[in-house]
Amino acid sequence: MSPRDRIAQARRVCVAPMMDWTDRHCRMFHRQFTARALLYTEMITASAILHGDAAHLLRHGPVEYPLALQLGGSVPGDLARAVRIAAPMGFAEINLNVGCPSDRVQSGTFGACLMREPGLVAECAAAMIEAAGADGPEITVKCRIGVDDQVPERVLPEFVDRVAAAGVQVFAVHARMAWLEGLSPKQNRDIPPLDYPLVHALKRDRPELGIIINGGIASLAEAKAHLAQGVDGAMIGRAAYHDPAGLLAGADALITGAAGPEVTAEDAVRAMFPYIARELDWGTRLAQITRHMLGAFSGRPGARRWRQVLSAEAHRPGAGLDVIERALGYVEAPRPATVA
Questions:
Q1: Cis omega (within 30 of 0) on the bond before 66?
Q2: What CA–CA distances, in Å, run from 154 to 169, 230, 263?
Q3: What is the full DSSP assignment across 248-275?
Q4: Burial letters for 169-183: b for 16+ Cβ neighbours within 10 Å, e otherwise?
Q5: In this structure, is residue 318 part of a structural domain?
Q6: 214 DSSP assignment
Q7: What's the CATH number where 319 sits?
Q8: Which of 11, 146, 148, 232 could be cross-linked to 155 through a Cys-Cys bond (beta carbons 3.0 to 4.6 Å apart)?
Q9: 100 catalytically annotated
Q10: Which of 289, 240, 253 is nearest to 16 (CA)?
């Protein structure tokens, strides 16, 4: 299997880029549940890479692979320079954000507001593809189905065709409009109605493109149902973050089609211990890591106490692995499945 084919397979289940959530500690925890799903960084702006500490911003470890970098920006030259910096670092793909509706992103003239400027997005994508080179990471785009008063049935196909003509072959489509006027970023994740059939139709009409569907997917069963509609992957966001055991432990079987042992939440937490110990030695605070582990036992007896102990104690100076051990003591073992 070629590297591109392996990445295409990994895209069958993706964990969405989420600001303030999918940092390297979160990705490390998610990787304990799934070896094959494609993980994403938080969005990082091209200007931050060019004018800030690029090594710190792009920091990751090979164990996180396959890993995609998401970039924000709307200046083709800046995006190309950022790609040249990031391309040698082992990312499987570099994704351009054309979907985030936050005020901060709009003020920088990128994110979802770029749905109104497909020509500019095409220029940005072309510059990024040239910068990545033939052997570099694939350049992809994550977008909405439209913004504000646009008609998504017309806008989405036109947008995709314009950007695909610039060389982009993979699109992750959040199946909601973004209402940039009148809704907060949080409301934009829930209030605009989902239009999954539009994304399914996009794939049917453009079979040569890779289409990843995103938005409101809350289980692997739902992801599987979307794959059955012909799309190339399902991108899961908040559900994977809040219940990683429920959403990611079975991801590898869905990706490969081969059943295998599923990692338990206990296994995943204990597998993190060497990483956590090393990070603590380097000055990382325990809470910076464990805040991403609060949902490990979602729905299990003792999950509330697990969250309480970590929330109350992990931020204290000198907090270490003993805090996690104490929190684990409150979690009851899962009940064995009953046979009818």
A1: yes
A2: 19, 21, 43
A3: HTTHHHHHHS---PPPPHHHHHHHTHHH
A4: bbbbbbbbbbbbeeb
A5: yes
A6: E
A7: 1.20.120
A8: 146
A9: yes
A10: 240
Range of the domain at 287: 265-328
CB of 15 within 8 A of CB of 40? yes
Helix (H) or strand (E) holding 86: helix 76-86
Cα 202 to Cα 199: distance, rounded to the nearest angstrom: 5
Residue type, 6: R
**Are residues 146 and 212 located together in one domain of the fold?**
yes
Model pTM above 0.90 = yes
Residues 275, 250 share a domain: no
Q: Bridge partners of 211?
A: 171
Rounded Cα–Cα distance for residues 91 and 95 (Å): 10
pLDDT for residue 111: 84
We report the CATH number of the domain holding residue 62 as: 3.20.20.70
- The number of folded domains in the chain is 2
Reported as a single tens digit per residue, the pLDDT across 204-235 is 999 999 999 999 999 999 999 999 999 999 99
| CA–CA gap between residue 250 and residue 43 (Å, rounded) | 26
Asked whether 64 and 29 are in contact (CB, 8 A), the reply is: no
Strand-strand pairing, 93-98 and 67-72 = parallel
Identified catalytic residue from 100, 113, 124, 143: 100
